């Protein structure tokens, strides 16, 4: 809806029109549509235009900067905003994992979750995989993190760093587990893989990617979908997919693309903190 009306530097749309359009795409009532718009609107309690990109006027219009409309993911913005008021979104985890598996299966990949317990040195070890698929002798392990935070809250932004660190440790353990459970996983997926060709990926719902850490790709849902869709061959290629993962994890390339759209992001990786800001000219 926003992109269709995004013709000028400063975008303007009627609130009632936007609310009605939301109803057209499935929102149950006008009241709920307006509540969504209000939740995404800048107010005295707002700290940035990522969580609250809409600027409402008294005459019933909504204003947005064109630069923001090109970057805005309304779902991420809304749930990030909910994160700032400590809303409980834990029930969304299974739905996110299912979405990732379905997206992979639509590409013809036999993606599945897998859960196993095994006794090692008199201790029961448990391995739980959100999404697994095997292609061209390569096993891909995907850990899904349905995590949203308010980017205006640096305390919560720091939790992103801790979440990423823990996720990398977790998938490293799952990589080791895949070697131990190789025959069981191959039977589950009806495919074979080389122990030396295991790719680990952490997929999150944040609007940013992180630099690869300990041979693990840490990317957004949107970047995963992009990596799945862009390949040089007619069919899905593990080689092309890995190249795309490298590309979206390349911070210099990401910054170059952003600057080409006249968006300026400040990425400060010192001490593991990644923050973003926008300079609109």
Give a written overview of the molecule.
With 281 residues, this protein is an alpha+beta fold. It has 2 domains: 3-72, no CATH class; 90-272, 3-Layer(aba) Sandwich (Trna Endonuclease, Chain: A, domain 1), CATH 3.40.1350. Helices cover 41% and strands 21% of the residues. It contains 10 helices and 9 strands. It has helices spanning 15-24, 30-39, 66-71, 74-83, 93-105, 154-180, 182-189, 221-229, 238-248, 251-260; strands at 10-14, 55-56, 61-65, 112-120, 123-135, 138-145, 198-204, 210-213, 216-220. Strands 4-5-6-7-9-8 form a 6-stranded mixed beta sheet, sandwiched between helices. Strands 1-3-2 form a 3-stranded antiparallel beta sheet. α8 (221-229) runs antiparallel to α9 (238-248). The two termini are 24 Å apart.
Largest sheet: 6 strands, mixed
The quaternary structure here is single chain
Total separate domains: 2
For this structure, what is the CATH class of the largest domain? Answer: Alpha Beta
The helix-strand sequence is: EHHEEHHHEEEHHEEEHHH
Count of beta strands? 9
Overall geometry:
elongated
CATH architecture of the largest domain: 3-Layer(aba) Sandwich
Mean pLDDT: 79
Strand content: 15-25%
State the end-to-end distance. 24 Å
Total of DSSP H or I helical runs spanning 4+ residues? 10
Uncertain stretches: 85-89, 260-281
Strand order of the largest sheet: 4-5-6-7-9-8
Radius of gyration, in angstroms, nearest whole number: 21 Å
| Percent of residues in helices | 40-55%
CATH topology of the largest domain: Trna Endonuclease, Chain: A, domain 1
Structural category: alpha+beta
Protein name: NERD domain-containing protein
GO molecular function, one term: nucleic acid binding
InterPro entries: tRNA_endonuc-like_dom_sf (IPR011856)
């Amino acid at each position: 809806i926003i992109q269709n009306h995004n013709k000028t530097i400063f975008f303007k749309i009627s609130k009632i029109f936007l609310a009605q359009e939301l109803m057209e795409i499935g929102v149950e009532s006008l009241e709920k549509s307006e509540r969504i718009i209000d939740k995404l609107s800048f107010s005295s309690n707002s700290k940035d235009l990522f969580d609250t990109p809409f600027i409402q006027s008294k005459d019933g219009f909504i204003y947005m900067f064109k630069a923001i409309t090109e970057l805005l993911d309304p779902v991420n913005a809304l749930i990030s905003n909910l994160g700032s008021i400590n809303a409980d979104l834990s029930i969304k985890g299974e739905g996110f994992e299912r979405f990732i598996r379905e997206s992979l299966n639509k590409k013809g990949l036999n993606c599945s979750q897998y859960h196993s317990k095994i006794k090692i040195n008199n201790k029961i070890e448990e391995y739980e995989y959100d999404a697994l698929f095997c292609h061209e002798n390569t096993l891909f392990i995907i850990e899904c993190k349905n995590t949203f935070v308010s980017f205006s809250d640096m305390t919560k932004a720091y939790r992103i760093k801790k979440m990423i660190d823990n996720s990398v440790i977790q998938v490293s353990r799952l990589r080791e587990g895949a070697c131990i459970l190789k025959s069981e996983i191959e039977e589950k997926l009806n495919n074979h893989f080389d122990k030396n060709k295991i790719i680990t990926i952490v997929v999150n719902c944040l609007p940013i990617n992180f630099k690869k850490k300990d041979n693990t790709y840490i990317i957004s849902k949107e970047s995963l979908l992009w990596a799945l869709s862009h390949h040089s061959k007619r069919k899905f290629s593990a080689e092309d997919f890995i190249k795309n993962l490298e590309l979206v994890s390349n911070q210099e390339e990401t910054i170059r693309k952003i600057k080409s759209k006249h968006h300026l992001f400040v990425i400060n990786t010192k001490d593991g903190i990644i923050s973003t800001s926008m300079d609109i000219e």
